[in-house]
Specification:
alpha+beta, Dna-directed Rna Polymerase Ii 140kd Polypeptide, Chain: B, Domain 6, 4 domains, 6-stranded mixed barrel
């Protein structure tokens, strides 16, 4: 009889003769101590090997065991769980629930619901909702949308602004936002209750009309009602701290938090220090903007090289204050003066900035239908329903068909019913209130069961020929705001090495025109524009016409000469990119002769 090899955690441990008995024995004993649900077994027919896994860090998931077509979890167990007579651990230890890893799941047949169980099934899902993560389970009517949209919707919810913690006013968090009036959703799932979502909501219930209006909501953009914004929709506060500490250096020197003296190295201007109080720290509720110093600080000199710097007088200290970066502004929220672990003085200043929705800010529903504000219309110019309801937001109908987010449309009907009936609607994935029930209730409340309404043009008062789909929806404001990203530059700082503009918004950097952007200009037939765009590091270098190497220009003696040919040769200035001049120097350092052959320009 052929034997079967056994591997424990990937290592060969021996052979067995009867693999079926061995697998059955392990399965019947594995829920007992010391394994307690951490053991998995898998038989590979092609290799004729049994793999037993008990290593840590494997992804396993709990399933109800099914024997002879009957699940081991009974009504009696569920009643005991409700009465707290039984715990989850007890179910695992009794072998009613098993943890399967990906390998053992290959040999299992898992039923989705109890109705589907046949004698062939080995396990039953605890709940179909368990296949989703915490955030995916927050999406209502998740089984009516495309799976990829569900995961994108989960990613969007992670970026939404809400009440992230109740003690935010005493915390020093880096780069956070807080929504002023967060609400709990009308259409909820069971996960909202399990996760205590009511305690940290991240969105607002608004009236949404699905229609085109003046073309300002094409390409996923949304139109907002100015009146809604004035009533508080989407308002949030952005917080960020400025931190400075008095560091100790070798030789007993240390930083000092104070208002820097005028004779200090790197002193800014008096205007920059105007908001500092006597201790060198800004006062609370001060209105601060770009380049304003919020914490004044001086440091000892970096290098004690020259003799005159050995006298540690005040005039050789250098300026190292904390000032607001380019484009930043706000109000000083509160100031903390404390000590760090080493006992050095630590000052933290939190700055807040109110953010009112503006064109370009990003919003999304829970179904990954994200879009930026295309226009904010006055309330009087927006369409209204026959009952006088003006939508807070106008959503483009073109965003739905190709993405197949039917859950988005269902939420509109569900939340409309819930808001009119004054109740929460259950939208749990696989276990939601049926659409027929919602439609019937909407009809009883005096509305059309398909969610459409007659609307009138806000500018002309004319009736629209089409019926407009109107309902309520839970909308989220995302942290991607124009105020954090707006960036432009004419001239500004450049890098020392390449003489090209610095990188990044905070450093007042340039906007890079890359290879692909270059191709678009060429395709447009505007290639001459590239002469202008690609001269950020244009420089004129003297070149020897004899040997083709970069010549030397002596500004003091006002003469030019070639390091190879001397000063008896013709030297011409040519315009090149400074980066090109750098690579010529690199070639020379490698012993490569980069000869430039000059021709007459005309």
């Amino acid at each position: 009889m052929a034997t079967t090899e056994v591997y424990l955690n990937g290592k060969y441990t021996g052979d067995i003769e009867n693999k079926e008995e061995f697998i059955a024995a392990i399965k019947s004993e594995r829920f007992k101590e010391p394994f307690a649900g951490r053991l998995n077994i898998y038989y590979n027919e092609e290799l004729n090997r049994v793999f037993v896994e008990s290593s840590r860090g494997r992804a396993t998931r709990p399933l109800i065991v099914v024997k002879n077509g009957i699940p081991l979890l009974t009504e009696r167990h569920i009643k005991q769980l409700h009465k707290n007579e039984l715990s989850w651990t007890d179910l695992v230890q009794q072998g009613i629930i098993e943890y399967l890893d990906t390998a053992e799941e290959e040999t299992a047949l898992v039923a989705f619901t109890e109705r589907e169980i046949t004698p062939d099934h080995t396990h039953l899902e605890i709940s179909p909702l368990a296949m989703l993560g915490l955030i995916s389970a927050l999406v209502p009517y998740g089984n009516f949308t495309q799976s990829s949209r569900l995961s994108i919707g989960a990613k969007n919810q992670k970026q939404s602004i809400g009440l992230y913690t109740t003690n935010y006013h005493v915390r020093m968090d880096m780069d956070v936002n807080s929504l002023h009036t967060p609400q709990k959703p009308i259409v909820k799932t069971v996960m909202h209750d399990l996760a205590d979502y009511d305690k940290h909501p991240a969105g607002q219930n608004i009236v949404v009309a699905v229609m085109n209006y003046k073309g300002y909501n094409m390409e996923d953009a949304i139109i907002l009602n100015k009146g809604s914004i004035e009533r508080g929709f989407g308002r949030s506060t952005y917080f960020r701290p400025a931190i400075a500490e008095e560091l100790r250096y070798s030789g007993g020197l240390m930083d000092q938090i104070c208002i820097p003296d005028k004779d200090i190295k790197g002193y800014k201007s008096e205007k920059d220090y105007k908001l500092l109080e006597g201790d060198g720290i800004v006062y609370p509720e001060a209105q601060v903007s770009e380049d304003n110093v919020v914490i004044g600080k001086t440091s000892p000199p970096r290098f004690l090289s020259s003799l005159d710097e050995y006298s540690l007088a005040s005039n050789i200290r250098r300026e190292s204050s904390m000032a607001l970066k380019h484009g930043e502004q706000g109000v000083v929220d509160f100031v903390v003066i404390t000590e760090n672990e080493e006992g050095n003085k630590l000052v933290q200043v939190r700055i807040r900035d109110q953010r009112i929705p503006e064109v370009g800010d990003k919003f999304t529903s829970r179904h990954s239908q994200k879009g930026v504000i295309g226009f904010i219309f006055p309330e009087s110019d927006l369409p209204f329903t026959s009952r006088g309801i003006v939508p807070d937001l106008i959503f483009s109908p073109h965003s739905v068909p190709s993405r197949m987010t039917i859950s988005h449309l269902l939420e509109l009907i569900g939340a409309k019913t819930g808001s009119l009936a004054g109740r929460h609607v259950n939208g749990t994935t696989f276990d939601s209130e049926p659409e027929e029930k919602l439609r019937k209730e909407l009809l009883e409340l005096g509305f059309r069961d398909d969610g459409t309404e007659i609307m009138y043009n806000g500018l002309t008062g004319e009736r629209f020929h089409a019926r407009i789909f109107v309902g309520n929806m839970y909308y989220l404001k995302l942290k991607h705001m124009v105020a954090n990203k707006i960036h432009s530059r004419a001239r500004g700082p450049i890098q020392l090495l390449t003489r090209q503009p610095t990188e990044g918004r905070a450093k007042e950097g340039g906007l890079r025109l890359g290879e692909m952007e270059k191709d678009t200009f060429v395709a447009h037939g505007a290639s001459l524009l590239l002469k202008e765009r690609f001269d950020s590091d244009k420089t004129a270098i003297p070149v020897c016409e004899s040997c083709g190497l970069t010549a030397i220009q002596d500004a003091l003696k006002d003469k030019r000469f070639c390091p190879v040919c001397g000063d008896s040769v013709e030297i011409s200035d040519i315009e090149v990119s400074y980066a090109f001049k750098l690579i010529l120097d690199e070639f020379k350092s490698l012993g490569i002769y980069p000869k430039l052959q000059l021709e007459n320009k005309y």
